[in-house]
Amino acid sequence: MSWMPIQEPVQTLGTYAAPPDVEIGFEPQQWVFQNISTNVGNVIIGSFDGVKDHFVLDLSVPLLAAFTARTTQKKVWFRRGAFVAGVAQVRVMSYSFT
Predict the structure, then answer these.
(1) Per-residue pLDDT band at 2 (split at 50, 70, 90)
(2) Which string of b and e fits 11-39 if b means at least 16 CB within 10 Å?
(3) Are 54 and 20 within 8 A, CB to CB?
């Protein structure tokens, strides 16, 4: 079993950065994302291709504070939905049983 837990600061506002924010060396079976920002107004938007928005992590809506995805994508991009004072951070976990 491979797994990778990390905490990633999210800096980009508006569009996704050129290199992915997270890239792993194994093919995951599932990703888990959690918004752990210091301010409830920090909305984090994520993508598996760096172009299209695939999920939103919003602390002001309890059901949107975390997201689970079953995908074999190895790269993830993040951007901030709005700039609010405080640190925008996302907890990222990925695993595979192969």
Answers:
(1) low
(2) eeeeebeeebbbebeeebeebebbbbbee
(3) no
Residue bearing tokens 């049983």: 97
By three-state DSSP, how is residue 23 classified? strand
- State the CATH number of the domain containing residue 79: 2.60.120.10
Distance CA 79, CA 77 (A): 7
Q: What is the pTM of this model?
A: 0.88
Q: What range defines the domain where residue 24 resides?
A: 2-96
Q: How many structural domains is the chain composed of?
A: 1
Residues 27-77: pLDDT tens digits? 889 999 999 988 888 899 999 999 999 999 998 888 899 999 999 999 999
